[in-house]
Amino acid sequence: MAQAQGHYYVPHESHWPIVGSVGLAVSMVGASLYLNGSSVSLWILLTGIAIILFMMAGWFRDVILENESGKFGPAEGRSFRQGMAWFIFSEVMFFGAFFGALFYARVLSVPWLGGDDPSTSRYLWDSVVLAWPTAGPGFGDLEWEPMGAWPLPTINTLLLLTSGVTLTIAHHAIKEGRRAKTILFMWATVLLGLTFMGVQAYEYYEAYAHLNLRMDTGIYGSTFFMLTGFHGFHVLVGAITLLVITLRLMKGHFSAENHFGFEAAAWYWHFVDVVWLGLFLFVYIL
What whole-number distance in Å separates Cα of residue 184 and Cα of residue 170? Predict the structure, then answer.
């Protein structure tokens, strides 16, 4: 169904925002009860997560059906691009805050408490010498090791860089109308993303089992797991998104002229790649 010239599609009333709000509320109740040691908290939390997933599947289905029925045109396409650009900007600010916490600890707090400025450190921690990476005062007697850049983080860097290449090949292929090639390289991208997650899970196992590096290992442990963990969550979201896009391609969705859903997923994935390069440099190497 072709869209009328100058028409802008306004979605009908939807119950999905209410369903999502209920899911979020139930999840927060479950999380709060978990922090207070309740025996039923896990089931409540899982119920809330299940409601959220149900909402996402239903809402995304409706949007896909709207797109495939021809309700979206150039005006909606511009809105989608603006919305995705602002979303990625918000993600830049999100990670910017986390990188800011890391830089503040490394450049200001640790040198300040560690004796670089005797006029202040002697009033706070007498005779304490700190240098990054550090767990902070009070953790000096605990044996732990920082996570090195080799081999697991380096392998993950290669995996993500390669996934960026395969995704770019798929993008060029869909613009050329070569659907089979697009699907092939999309599956390769999804596989690389899932492999990254597997390697990161093994990295966390090594951190806990052999390095004694935990989330409560002072400032280094908290910043390490905060940055890498949230990035890993974004990889999970990106991999699921790419998987959905791949399945839609296999069902005949998208064309050489109309494939913004594909492009939005690609923007997000390339953003995740760039963030990882910053993590690899500032968390693992420097």
Answer: 8
> What CATH number does the domain containing 120 carry?
1.20.120.80
Q: Is 139 exposed, middle or buried (0-12, 13-18, 19+ CB in 10 A)?
A: middle
User: How confident is the model over 29-86, as pLDDT tens digits?
Assistant: 999 999 888 888 899 999 999 999 999 999 888 888 887 777 777 777 788 889 999 9
Structure tokens at 28: 């927060």
Give the CA angle between residues 259, 167, 69 to the nearest 5°: 20
The tally of domains found in the chain comes to: 2
Render the burial of 221-260: b for 16+ CB within 10 Å, e for the rest.
Answer: bbbbbebbeebbebbeebbebbbbbbebbeeebbeeeebb
Q: What is the pTM of this model?
A: 0.84
Q: Which of 72, 91, 124 is the last residue of a domain?
A: 72
Q: Is the pLDDT of residue 222 over 80?
A: yes
